[in-house]
Amino acid sequence: MITGRLIRELASECGFVLAGVAAVGPVPDFERFRGWVDRGLAGEMRYLTDHRADLRGNPATLLPGARSVICVALLCNGPGPYSNELSDSECGWIARYAWGEDYHSAIRQKLEAMAARLLLVQDFTWRACVDTAPLLERSLARDAGLGWIGRNTCLINQHAGSFVLLGELLTTLEIPPDAPPPDRCGTCTRCIQACPTEAIVPSPDGGFELDSRLCISYFTIELRAGIPEAAREQVGNNIFGCDICQDVCPWNRKAPRVETAFPAPPLEKLAALDETEFRQMFRGTPMLRPKYRGFIRNVAVAMGNSGQTKFREPLEKLASSDDVLIAEHARWALKKLAASAS
């Protein structure tokens, strides 16, 4: 018989730091999610607002006969400094989860290996999911006992912290579900206070939620248009994602770390990349998500925020780009450097 204990043992052997079980059924958080979408807080992330939105209401829509969801977490807390500890203005910041290989394939392979081992114990039907599947995975992970959802809207575990990546194994197994842990944020509001763009906002139910339209991660990864000019200075040196609301979280102070290379890419080197070189440098990583023009847009903004006059020459080259998006952000960065020098 497959039990929660066996699942946690196999999950650990497959490389996951956390594992638990949630029952399949209507997800209580769905109405909260639906209201978040209806109020436009998803911005232009249409994969959250199109026909897939309603599928997130119940995991059973993705696997007929599903009874239990095995939720797992993969640690991505690398050994380098936190973003609020890095003072090198000549380098860009890349979100911790993107320091290694693309997590989608890594998590899926581990889930498939886990399913294969469980099938040796009992026959069942399953489906492996990562964050590309229409699931409210943080809500399911909370219900499976992996952690609570903090004010920064991240899943937080009291031992592993919040630098984790989630995956799910939908199954037709009947497994006793785990219980969600208590919320341990207490009165702490460090994440809210630290967010440069004030993207963590009060929600209608008296809690907090993320307004994606103000979030640096949204600007630098998901947004295909120009970064709002009023927010560009607050973007700082973030060229892919943002870790600030997690870096200041007390639960990450003593969280375990994994061995990954710490990337501190010089902005000048990144600005000189052509599209082919960009694809070659970041092949097999999440860094390809914003595409070349979005990435160079981000680099230009970081250069403008650096205060480094040495970046004038590479920015002038970008300002003459045929790509309107890149050229406009480079011109803004040149003006920002000029203002800093005066």
Fill in the keyword field for this structure:
two-stranded parallel ribbon; four-stranded antiparallel sheet
Write a structural description:
- With 342 residues, the protein is of the alpha+beta class.
- Helices cover 37% and strands 12% of the residues.
- It is built from 15 helices and ten strands.
- The protein has helices spanning 4-13, 30-38, 46-49, 52-55, 103-119, 137-143, 190-194, 216-222, 232-235, 244-247, 267-271, 275-281, 291-306, 312-319, 324-341, and strands at residues 18-23, 68-75, 93-94, 126-129, 148-149, 155-156, 164-171, 200-202, 208-210, 238-240.
- The strands form four sheets. It has a four-stranded antiparallel sheet with strand order 1-2-7-4, with helices on both faces. A two-stranded parallel sheet has the order 3-10. The chain has a two-stranded antiparallel ribbon with strand order 5-6.
- Strand 8 and strand 9 (208-210) form a beta hairpin.
- The mean pLDDT is 96.
